[in-house]
Task: structure prediction
Amino acid sequence: MKKVSAAAPPDPLMQASAIPCGAGLGLRRGMFKALRDHPSALERIDFFEVAPENWIGIGGRLGKAFRAYSEQKPVLAHGLSLSLGGPGKLDTEFLAQVRDFLREHQIALYSEHLSWCADDSHLYDLLPIPFTSDAVRHVAARIRQTQDIIGARIAIENASFYTPLASEMGELEFFLSVVREADCDVLLDVNNVYVNSINHRYDPRQFIDAVPPSRVRYMHIAGHYVEAPDLIVDTHGAAVVDPVFELLEYARQKLGVKPVLLERDFNLPPLGELLDELGRVRAYAGL
Result:
């Protein structure tokens, strides 16, 4: 495997300057009809985000529709199944497909969750990683291997979790240790910071204060489900609540203006409502 050196010329598709500015939406197949019926809506969307697993190898009508959007708007790739924290061998064949997908669609950034989801087979859930020094070294090595194959830095997303596992350190120390050890970038999920702060009783602003601004490529914001006053679940199936918008505003003040992606995976409202919510994202993020 050829290792990418610091002196290698940058891939023009993967430079930091290529990250789109503004506010974006996760592109879901359920949106296609509304976007087709209201083409002016694209003027209110600065970029799209897609899971490469959902589009690699897809042709026909859906493939043509995806390409039409990727040719009109910048696209970022946010993975679901790489299992960076998992015990099994890293899927290098899949990563080669991701690399080709990024270049085919001129995608400037690939990101993944700081979690695991597979061993001998996929478990279809994003599971927590033990917050240990051994896990830091394990995950960081897998991120570096991923970056060697992709040919550029990736960004890792802070994950929501509901119970700590064999922890030697806190969530924040673990997250920052992986970022330093792997020399990777950050996709800061503001809703996940809020969810974890409620469930694990910490100040979400202290988490944001500690994140290096230069590492943050863009941010996520989403809705969640309130199970109880001290238990909320990251669902991406509801509107963003005011405390999360306020935390986004705080993140902008501490980290600077960054692109922000509004996640909505199901219970999709009418497109007009989604675009109005994207307008609130712009306002709180200073975009």
